[in-house]
Design goal:
The chain is 48% helix and 5% strand. The protein has 8 helices and 3 strands, in the order H-H-E-H-H-E-E-H-H-H-H.
Amino acid sequence: MSGEWIKIEVSLPAKPEVIRMGRALGLSPEAICGYLIRFWGWASSNSVDGSVTQLALRDIDMIVTLQGYAQAMCDVGWLQYDKEKDSIVLPNFTRHNGESSKKRALSANRSAKYRHANSDATVTLQASPEKRREEKSKPSAPAKPARRRSLEERNKAAVAGWVPKEEEHA
């Protein structure tokens, strides 16, 4: 299903909740993000409103293949578990993963592309070369045109260095 997707914030690896989950589970923020993507993808496919019934915390651990994961999500406030009903709730699920949030995200993306395509501003990633200011000099009198030498003068100049040395002294 190539049309299925979930929204992920660029700042996810640096969020305090991710750091706390990583510390609790002994994993890097990048690894935690991978597990979050796996779980949120599963939740998006299996829930409309962020709640799933007849699901225990150990079931979530099996879904993401990491023991203690569901409890770590509960500890940071990203998952609520009702033991009596044997159900989970993802707070703010519809804000990030509901159909309306996906429509908002797609609309924002389209608007950004439109603004970018219609902007007059050009963004340069490389520094421009330095421009030096030249001092303006006062215009001088126009130069006199050089006198054109006659053909005879030009020939004498060309042949002057060509005469053999013996003839120079003669």
